[in-house]
Amino acid sequence: MPLPKAELHLHIEGTLEPELAFELAARNGVTLPYADTEELRTAYEFSDLQSFLDLYYGLMAVLRTEEDFAALADAYLARAAAQGVRHAEIFFDPQAHLARGVRMGTVVEGLGRALDRAETVHGVSTQLIMCFLRDESAGSAMEALEAARPYLAPFGPITGVGLDSAEVGHPPAKFREVYEAAAALGLRRVAHAGEEGPPAYITEALDVLGAERIDHGLRCLEDPEVVARLVRDRVPLTLCPLSNVRLRAVGTLAEHPLPAMLDAGLLCTVNSDDPAYFGGYAEDTFDAVRAALGLSPEQLRELARNSFTAAFLDHDEERRSRYLAEVEAYEFP
Ligand code: ADE
Ligand code: ZN
Question: Is the distance from the beta carbon of residue 192 to the nearest atom of ligand 1 less than 6 Å?
């Protein structure tokens, strides 16, 4: 039995496995520029974030109908449950779909269909976080938020906003207004920062956007003052070690600074980002960091505990306590 954990940094479009991509392409009459799944997989050789994003956005062409989005999320939730995920706060990129002529309702109602049955079918509680594409305009982000209004909690599944896509040259402050609007609508706020961008973007995400968690945050280590603040304020970091290796933010998994970050007192969580592209879902990632970094069972338990501590479960503390009790009771094989 895998260690119980929450997944807090997972792009649903990044769970599109080659087999499902080809199945949806056939169903929707979309021609992919790859002969088969094997050829597609050989393209998963990335030099940086942008080289990944080019492929990631391209492959989204196969996602067209509500059924497609439901199938994508169903497949992820089944895998996540098998890997010990008890709670998932799932990102999606609405602007990437709106730009292709796929309506917000198609995306959210499709994902929502899978999320609605996730607890009964898979035993996984879920939330949905819409991410703004930081390499698009602030106006486009605001339009996406407007289009999402019928689907915001408590009436729909969207509980928060995030910020992703190409980081360098797109500082958080560009999105001040849309984050203010999101806060006024009662949404939770997270943001990718310090993945490829400088530590100053982390500070800006906290100060200007009111981010409650930082996605990645790896480059905080370059500025001791940023580290001190993250420690002091117990700001969770949703680290994605396999992603960092595949997108070359770190050289090898054995060189990942996760142990040093834990030692520094940072509230670290370990997540899978885009598992179909980076070679591992939640438990695969825990296994990989344990093997490469020699983490002890107690350090793994700390990471699992942190994932539930950092989850947006403030409205359901009883559930959080239940999950935390499962972590404490877990016996390592
Ligand atoms: N979109 C999907 N995965 C991402 C990542 N790792 N960083 C930024 N944007 C993303
Ligand atoms: Zn990400």
Answer: yes
- For residue 298, how far is the Cα from the chain centroid? 24
Sequence-distant (6+) residues with CB within 8 A of 170 are 134, 135, 197
For 8-60, the pLDDT digits (tens) are 999 999 999 999 999 999 999 999 999 999 999 999 999 999 999 999 999 99
Domain ranges within the chain, ordered by starting residue: 5-328
Residues measured by CB to lie within 5 Å of ligand 2, the ion: 273
Encoded amino acid at 6, one letter: A
Cβ partners under 8 Å of residue 90, min gap 6:
7, 10, 12, 73, 76, 111, 115, 126, 127, 128, 129
The answer to whether the predicted template modeling score (pTM) of the entire model surpasses 0.90 is yes
Distance CA 284, CA 167 (A): 26
CB atoms within 10 A of CB 113: 18
274 C-alpha to center of ligand 1: Å? Answer: 8
Query: For residue range 299-328, what is the model confidence (pLDDT) as tens digits?
Result: 999 999 999 999 999 999 999 999 999 999
Closest CA to 181 of 201, 199, 161, 198: 161
Asked if 93 and 15 touch (Cβ cutoff 8 Å), the reply is no
CB-hemisphere CA count at 13 Å for 2?
19
Q: What b/e string do you get for 17-55 counting C-beta neighbours within 10 Å, with b at 16 or more?
A: bbebbbebbeeeeeebebeebeebeebeebeebeebbee
- Contact 274 CB / ligand 1 (< 6 Å): yes
Spatial CA neighbour of 234 closest among 218, 219, 214:
214
pLDDT, tens digit (0-9, with 9 covering 90-100), for 184-214: 999 999 999 999 999 999 999 999 999 999 9
The fold adopted by the segment(s) 5-328 is TIM Barrel (3.20.20)
Q: Is 183 exposed, middle or buried (0-12, 13-18, 19+ CB in 10 A)?
A: middle
